[in-house]
Amino acid sequence: MSNLYNRYSKKELKKNILTNSTSCFIVSFYKYFPIKNIQEYRDQIYKKFYQYNVLGRVYISSEGINAQISIPVKFYPLIKNFLHNFDPKLNNLFINKSLNHDIKAFWVLSVKIKKNLVFDDIKNIEFNSKDIGIYIESKEVNCMLNDRKTIFIDMRNSYEYEIGHFPNAIEIPSLTFREQLKKVIKIMHNNKDKKIVMYCTGGIRCEKATAWMRFNGFKYIYHIKGGIIGYVNDAKKNKQPILFKGSNFVFDNRMSEKVSDEIISFCKQCNKPSDRYVNCAFNSCHLLFIQCDNCTINFKNCCSKDCMEHM
Q: HSE (CB half, 13 Å, CA atoms) of 193?
């Protein structure tokens, strides 16, 4: 019988990865489309990815697929070909390559069945998730950034926004996507006739967010193809200036990817410029916060003196 789940502990897997010198591409992709036999779909994805040493997270639901994975460079063409041929609905799948590679981003392969790819808490049965905004890429993004009449909205969590964002982009303060969807309509209710560009890390949240804005009567809604990662890659490819400031938060062991040389966030303990996210070393706390190198030493990887004393 083929292996369909990890057989080893995360500790063992992490040790193996850290001592492995294999070059990898870190990629992400998503697509909304109906999947009927979710368990079979999940198992086939797992078997193929396990066979070629793919690591990372894959979510499968009745509404589609979402993945953040690392692929050994030598197997990348095989995995790409597999995805494009595995299901006719994936034959035009847009695969977003990370800004930084050859970094140990994942220790395990996890392919999970989820109710929703992104939890939005939208309950209105009339909502059409396919009525999305207009895709734009780097050249048009830059033009719209220079247009004072165009509004940019960052559809990421507050801690993501803090270390990097587009100039003058509006933050929708929240810790969850479902909170943002409720807040953004209220905050922007007087701007239904203005051009609005929405963006997130890789694009998946804006698929729902732009459709939600259109459902609520906003007329001119755009979103960046491939999110921040897609924007930077497209700008490099087409020799466009990169106007994003700071670092891009990512949900893996890297924590962030540097996009520009500017550091726009600050250490929570000494207030010196830093964009380095860590989790408090005191496990009962485990707070995610920004800490500079000096404070990491002084506070022994903790967020406060109290946590340091408990350690």
A: 0
Q: Which CATH architecture has domain 134-237?
A: 3-Layer(aba) Sandwich (3.40)
**pTM, entire model:** 0.88
Sequence spans of domains, the chain: 10-113, 134-237, 266-310
Residues forming beta bridges with residue 253, ordered by sequence position: none
Lookup: tokens for 86? 């595995």
Q: Can you give the pLDDT at residue 173? A: 92
Residue 300 backbone class (left: φ over 0; alpha: ψ -120 to 50; beta: rest): left
Where do we find the tokens 């087409």? 238
pLDDT tens-place string over residues 60-100: 999 999 999 999 999 999 999 999 999 999 998 999 998 87
Asked if 57 and 67 touch (Cβ cutoff 8 Å), the reply is yes
Residues in contact with 254: Cβ distance below 8 Å, sequence separation at least 6, in sequence order: 100, 103, 105
**How does pLDDT run across 154-195, given as a tens digit for each residue?**
999 999 999 999 999 999 998 899 999 999 999 999 999 999
200 has catalytic annotation: yes
The active-site residue, picked from 24, 143, 200, 307, is 200
Q: Does domain 10-113 have CATH number 3.20.20.20?
A: no
